[in-house]
Every structure is written in structure tokens, then in C-alpha cells.
Amino acid sequence: MFTPGIAPHAAGSVLVATGDTRVICAASIEDNVPRWMKEQSVTGGWLTAEYSMLPYSTLTRKARDITRGKQDGRGVEIQRLIGRALRSVVDLGALGARTLCVDCDVLQADGGTRTASITGACVAVALACRSLVEKGDVVRSPLQQLVAAVSVGMVGGRPVLDLDYVEDKDAAVDFNLVLTADARFVEVQGAGEEATFSQDEFDALVALGKKGVAELVHCQRAQLEN
């Protein structure tokens, strides 16, 4: 699922594969913080994320943002989600006056690119934080615990985990769940696709999603223990 060291110049990086979705996640460390933190006298560090789909990641070529002259709205929404997810488990005070820059680049998209990005980016951040500890730049890892994300949906009247493109297109209900390793929710995104859903269906999707995240956290830990 994870191939570490895919971007050797980053402080931490992995190629994450979930089904036929492939995302390169890299974490770089900058020894400065955003201007707004300095202007507002905010102590500690910061974590920011960027997300993009490479032109050849989809069935038909996706134009780069630079050719359109503006950033894709969907991409902006996803990178904000990735940032929120990671900041929920990073002690920015322990990071010091540094910025963790996380880049998620989709090589191949078959559904669940945002959830794969969060799951892979967490491993990349863990590796970057480990490098800070090993170099003696911080006393302890700023990463307090792992975080992962998964998609779930109602397809053909049954709950399905980790939707691929076809399943996502046909889903009556589509959810993205972001949870910490101790099963606390960071974010829940979901809606009926021209459909409604019952409390029982909602509960079934959440239960399935929590099971999926637990499996992903197990994979993250196994990779980080190597």
C-alpha cells in the first residue's frame, strides 16, 4: 500500500496505492512560518497542504491549473481538507517556528483521491517529524497520533467501502470519513446523490468507514515500524 522514499529530496514521502488510485505524498520542512503568524504574534509552527491531479491521472487529459490561469475549485477544497486533517493530529507548538509543507500529487485516479491523500500524507508527515527528532531539531515528534480517511457509500442498496470511480458514480449516498487512530472524528463529508438515506443506513456507513480507517491505521503503523 505504501512505498516510502518516493521523493528523496523531501523530508518524508510515500507513494500510496488504494485500489487503482495512486498518489505521491511528500512532506517538506521550511525553517520559517507564514507572514500572518508573525504579524499576529502566533507562536509555534504551521502545516499547509497542496493537492493536484496530474494531467494523465484521469481517462481524459486534465489541463494543468496554470494553463487555465486559476486554481481548480475542487482542488482547493481538497487541499484544505488535507490540511485540516493533518493539523488535527500535529502539535504545532512542538514543531517550533517551522512550516510543514505537504504536497499530494495524484498519478492515477480511480476514486478516493482525497482520502488516499490524507492517509498517505500522514505517513509522509510522520517520516518528516521523525527526521526532525533524529537531527535533534525537536525533542519529540510533533505528530501526536495517526489520522486516515476512507470513502463509503450506498451502491445498489448496500454499503460499500473505498468506492472506485464506477461505484462512486453510481452511489445513491456518498461519504468521506476522516478519523484519528483512536477513532475520533475529524471530518464527515456526505450527502445523498439525488436520494435520501435513513438513520440505519447512516449508522451502517459510519461503522463500515470506522472499520476501514482502523485497517488503514494498521497499515500506516506497519510501514512506520519498518
Structure description:
There is one protein chain. The chain is built from 7 helices and 9 strands, in the order βββαβαααβαββαββα. The chain has one domain: GHMP Kinase, N-terminal domain (Ribosomal Protein S5, domain 2, 2-Layer Sandwich). It has a 5-stranded mixed sheet. The protein is an alpha+beta fold.
Continuous helix count: 7
CATH fold field value: Ribosomal Protein S5, domain 2
Low-confidence stretches: none
Note the beta-strand portion. Answer: 25-35%
Helix content: 25-40%
Task: Give the end-to-end Cα distance, rounded to a whole number of Å.
Answer: 13 Å
Second rung of CATH, namely the architecture: 2-Layer Sandwich
Q: Structural class of the secondary structure composition?
A: alpha+beta
Main sheet attributes: strand count, strand direction, barrel closure: 5 strands, mixed
- Radius of gyration equals 18 Å
Give the class-level CATH name: Alpha Beta
Give the overall pLDDT as a whole number: 94
* CATH homologous superfamily heading: GHMP Kinase, N-terminal domain
Backbone shape = globular
Q: Give the strand order, joined by hyphens, for the main sheet.
A: 1-2-3-5-4
**What is the number of beta strands?**
9
State the order of secondary-structure elements, H for helix, E for strand. EEEHEHHHEHEEHEEH
As for the number of domains, it is 1
